[in-house]
Specification:
The protein is mostly helical and about 160 residues long. It folds into 2 domains: about 1-40, no CATH class; about 40-165. The protein is built from 3 helices and no strands. It is rod-shaped and about 200 Å long.
Length: about 160
């Protein structure tokens, strides 16, 4: 900022002649005004320069905001595409895992079915063997019982014949 040109002698003379102030008062006021004007007072030129700077800054900010908006849109689109690709890959992976689990479960069920059939056959064979052994025992008992009954009958027939003789 530039200082304003101020004629202290002319100011002091005007105060003495027109305001009827003493010479000390007029000089004191002139000195005070001189100090005041030598400070940071903006001129029209200073204000115009600041206005141009503000307009340039506004244009720069608009450009930066537009650039940021476009960059953000591109980032969002890239993130969206990446997320869609990740979801698709996850979906395919999940489908593959489900199919593998389904096949594994089928294989496990088939193995369990075969194992169960084998166990049933073994149990059936053991049961048939027990039945066969039981049949043999029953036949032995039957022949034993028939033989014993035959002996009792023969004994019952022979004993009276021996007694009679």
């Amino acid at each position: 900022m530039s200082a304003v040109a101020f004629d202290t002698l002319k100011f002091a003379r005007s105060l003495r002649e027109k305001a009827k102030l003493s010479s000390e008062q007029a000089e004191g006021l002139a000195d005070a005004f001189t100090e005041l004007f030598q400070g940071d007072i903006a001129t029209k030129s200073d204000i115009g320069s600041v206005k141009v700077d503000i307009e340039a800054l506004g244009l720069s900010m608009r450009s930066d905001v537009e650039s940021l908006r476009l960059s953000t849109q591109a980032d969002i689109k890239a993130l969206m595409l990446s997320t869609q690709a990740d979801i698709k890959a996850l979906s395919l992976s999940t489908q593959t895992d489900i199919e593998a689990l389904r096949l594994s479960t089928r294989a496990d069920i088939e193995a369990l079915k075969l194992s169960t059939q084998s166990n049933l056959r073994e149990a059936e064979s053991r049961l048939e063997a027990k039945i066969e052994a039981t049949k043999t025992e029953i036949i032995k008992w039957m022949f034993g019982t028939i033989g014993f009954q035959t002996l009792i009958i023969l004994g019952a027939v022979i004993t009276p014949a021996r007694i009679v003789r």
